[in-house]
Please model this.
Amino acid sequence: MRGVFKRFDTNGDGYFNEIEFGCAFTVMGVDFNKENLRKLIRVSDKNNDGRIDYNEFEAMLNSAGKDEES
Ligand SMILES: [Ca+2]
Ligand SMILES: [Ca+2]
Model:
C-alpha cells in the first residue's frame, strides 16, 4: 500500500492534500464529490494537520473495509 501512497502523492511531500486525495479515489474508481471528500479527510485526519499521512491513509482504508454499514 505504500507504493500506492507514493504514486498518488504527486508533489512528493509525504502527505495527501485534498487534491491528491481526490485523485487517488478517482483512480480507484470511487467518485467522491468535494463535500464527501472533505468529510472523509476530516474523519481520517487524526492529528488535525489538514493533510493525510501514510498512517492515516492506511487506518482510513482499514476502517473503510470493516465499517461499511455505519
Ligand atoms: Ca502531497
Ligand atoms: Ca494528518
Summary: The helical segments are 2-8, 18-27, 34-44, 54-66. The pocket of calcium ion (ligand 2) is lined by residues 45, 47, 49, 51-53, 56 (CB under 6 Å).
